[in-house]
Amino acid sequence: MVVFPFILRCFQQLEIFSRLMADHGTPYIPASESPLELTVRVVIVGILLGILMTAANAYLGLYAGMTVSASIPAAVMSMIILRSLFKDVTILENNAVQTMASAGESLAAGVIFTVPALLVIPNLWDDIQLLETTIIALLGGLMGTMFTIALRRLFIVEEALPYPEGVACREVLVAGEEGGEGSQAILYALGIGAIYGLMVKGFQATHHTVEGVVNFMGTKIYGGIDLSVALLSVGFIVGIRIASFIFLGGMFGFMVLVPMYGLINGWGEGDSGVEQFKGIWATQIRYAGVGAMVVGGLYTLWSMRKSIITGISKALKTSTGSDEDLLRTEIDLPMRFVFSFCAVIVGLTFLFYWWKTGSLILSLAGAAFLAVTAFFFAAVAGYIAGVVGSSNSPVSGMTIATLLFTVALVWIIGDLILGLSTPTLMLATMLIASIVASSAAIAGDVMQDLKTGHMVGATPRIQQTAEIIGVITGALVIGPTLKLLHNAFGITKTACEREIDQAILAGSENIRNCDNALLAPQAELIGDIVRGSFVGDVNMQMIILGVVIAVVLIWLKMPVMSVAIGIYLPLGLSVPIMLGGVLSYFAFRSAHLRVDGDLRGKPSKKAVSAAKEVENRGVLIGAGFIAGESILGVLVALLIVLEVDLTAIFNTGVLNNLLSLLFFGWFVLVFLWLATRSLPAKGNLIRDFSLILKDVFGKIISMFKLTK
């Protein structure tokens, strides 16, 4: 147990470098001025970027199970587009564009974690239903937006929560306004990420994953890495602390739980050791992550109960006030309109449930339940985003927690009282969970955007209108995007393999390949939970194990959600995320070394400032890599649907595992070089790496000496 205190102390030290939340004082544009904000050109560019960001984030989330805020790349792209076409663009116009664009991509996060689960559950959906998906996105997105607006003054003005991504976006907007180099940096990164995505996904010139299994002491040990610059960038953006805990969860699941289970119960069927290993993880160990997520979600809610109650009460008090005496920068949409609109959304939700389930009583209960849970989880998501950022907000964990309560509600009313069929019960459960997840996902983004607007001097009412436009845009785009990706790759291997079985039974010769199916891990997980809850085969033993793990993690004061994500995601996805986190740690420590001359003691203010510049640049580069690879994924999907095979046209081959690793390693070095360009010119990366590594090993050795 000696290791855990040491790790926690190291993470506490790292927080020195992750604090970007300096007090920016008065807004960049004072309340006395009223520059242009929501203009026609803003709406047009915002809608176009919203379409692009929604599609890109949908692909990334289905592929990796994680999404990253698009506010920063949207802000940079906005500046590039608007300033190349117009000379009189204001910073508030750029802020409105990024608000609209990021709203769509955040909404996508909530939808892709839940809607594809309807494909996983038998006898519900055989394909993505465009109308139903659009309605779910609209209801959830608008509900989350309205609920969060009511909490703006509490979270942003009174409690002044940090909102790291919102602050970083403010820095990007101000840098663009003052002629910074951020736009150029992200353009380079976007192009490089696109090239990598084209080579890996388009031409398939390298392996996408390198993995293997070896026999060890009567069991099997797995090793693997997903070769993705997008995941590398995710790790850099979230930082080594979160990345380490995700990796810790992956290592615990794949290196401890799976080998132990295989040793005790056998390895089952499979064409290879890798398939046997992953089979145990998918059918058994992943459910330990479910148990941990449920406990982690409930614990988060309980720890935040006072703040949420305070926020609700203050929102209700302001609903009857007047905005006449407020400054321009403090005028929200009228609270009467906000709460009235919420009531309309709840009414429309009731009609939607009634249409899909055919049960009046179940629809009334479901709509009332959703109104409470959606507001509650929107508040939670908005608060969590203020502390750790919207990219790290555990939307899927909150969805799972909601799911279990929803299952109980639907079972009592729909089964015990009304006697409805099992497919109807599962459909009703998923519809509620999907809208709640969409509401929670958009809530964190709204708060991040409003934080940015608060610091640059935007008018909240106008920015909130931009949010609504962005939500509507994202809702209209997400359905066709999911359908495109499903037709091209297949969303979840479960749904893809079921299609193969149906095609074989029908005697069809058009059999699709599921090797490239998008994993959609959260959707698979949620679908299995709902199906298992109603047919009675939920893996309760592993869920209870996850509960025990979560309790231990809470006792150790470790982030439960991050570790749980690592447990139920394939280890290969955690490895590049961890690598990105290590690069961020190396870059920040290098800033400390070059400014202060050594790594002893706390970094000076100049060192912290240098680390901040490195982080800002690294975030820009990472956002560009993510956008580039993700956008190429969507374009490749479009080519597949159009039956355009780049590998056949250009007759490309596939590099072996070693060369694939070297190819990926080159892009890792490029990322590191671009991200560290802002380091003080007082050394070189090789020297820095050796000294930082020596410092880390020195601390480990001294720790063990102290414990003897």
Folded structure, characterized:
The chain has helices at 3-18, 40-64, 71-85, 91-112, 117-120, 130-149, 152-158, 164-177, 182-202, 229-265, 273-303, 305-318, 335-357, 360-388, 395-417, 422-456, 460-488, 493-505, 521-535, 540-555, 560-568, 571-596, 605-641, 646-650, 657-675, 685-707, and strands at 209-216, 219-226. By secondary structure, it is mainly α. The protein has a two-stranded antiparallel ribbon with strand order 1-2. Helix 2 (40-64) runs parallel beside helix 4 (91-112), helix 4 (91-112) packs antiparallel against helix 16 (422-456) and helix 11 (273-303) crosses helix 20. The longest helix has 37 residues, at 229-265. 54% of the residues are buried. The model is unreliable at 1-8 and 11-24 (pLDDT under 50).
Characteristic terms for this protein:
mainly alpha, two-stranded antiparallel ribbon, disordered N terminus, 26 helices, globular, about 700 residues
